[in-house]
Amino acid sequence: MKSNSGKVFRQAAIVAACLLPFWSQMAFAERIKDLASIQGVRNNQLIGYGIVVGLDNTGDQTTQTPFTTQAIGNMLSQMGINLTSDQASKLQLKNVAAAMITATMPPFAKPGQPIDVTVSSMGNAKSLRGGTLLMTQLKGADGQVYAIAQGNILVGGVGASSGGSKVTVNHLSAGRIPDGATVERAVPSALGQGGFVYYELSATDFGTVQNVVDAINKSMGPGTANAVDGRRIAVRAPEESDARVSFLGRVDNLDVKPVQSAAKVIVNPRTGSVVMNQRVTLDACAVAHGSLSVVVDAPNPAMGQGADIQVKQEGGSLMNVKAGASLAEVVKALNALGANPLDLLAILQAMKAAGALRADLEII
Fold first, then answer.
1. pLDDT digits (tens, 9 = 90+) for 240-266
2. pTM of the model
3. Domain that holds residue 246
């Protein structure tokens, strides 16, 4: 029994070793729909100007936001209530706020379909919590009205103030209305040109384009797909609409192994964020790191003393940074410098200039 069990174990180990490369390839495979989009099938941005009412004394200070009172006057005049310019200028409506309404219209959206909208205060309103957006036209880039928005605003934050103290959780001057707009006009979406449909990769990569072409031709037949350039692929598709939709549904779900991305470091100086991918490597280099601080003491004229200004510089020693061939080694080498995120930005730029950082440095 022991010999049989040992034999079975060895056979299972051999099978697992043979299947391991296949599993590793499938683990990193992605669907074509995750790598590329069909040319002409896209979202459309909508925008509009509206009025939010029903606020609990947290609306605009209308003396400082004249566009709010002007909008209220125009709205009332359309409802048969006419105000003189003097009366409109004296309006003090703390439960009203002017807002910009934005929405994303998905492809193939038809009249009557609901879409979500975002409402953002454009005046000095303290909060939009509990407000109701009045009927607002949402226009596209061509100036045409494509949707109408209206509804109660959902604000995720909360705030309170008393006696000069104020507490705010999350953001109060923007909110969303789920299904708050109704599509009134459809945007024509051309699903290909003639007998071809064009796929566009989200990022230019010649290797990934070739892998996508090979996957489509292997599954749908030779000559179905052809690479146009490093980002676009022409796919021969059926002419009939139902057959074309079925065909594209199969193409979208084909698995493709994308080529590994180039080494890149993303730096955001405003927030001090540094993000790098696993392809980043370091060459051996030496880095001197030190910080400079300026301390200014307030002057005391009564004692005849002026401002005391002191400049201090912490000693920065020259540190040897070892070469790193993996992301873990790179992180370990950078942490050894003991630099804060803002200082790390300058160090990375210097490493890139010295040729020690093997990656593209992108500042956003």
1. 888 888 999 999 999 988 777 778 888
2. 0.67
3. 191-256
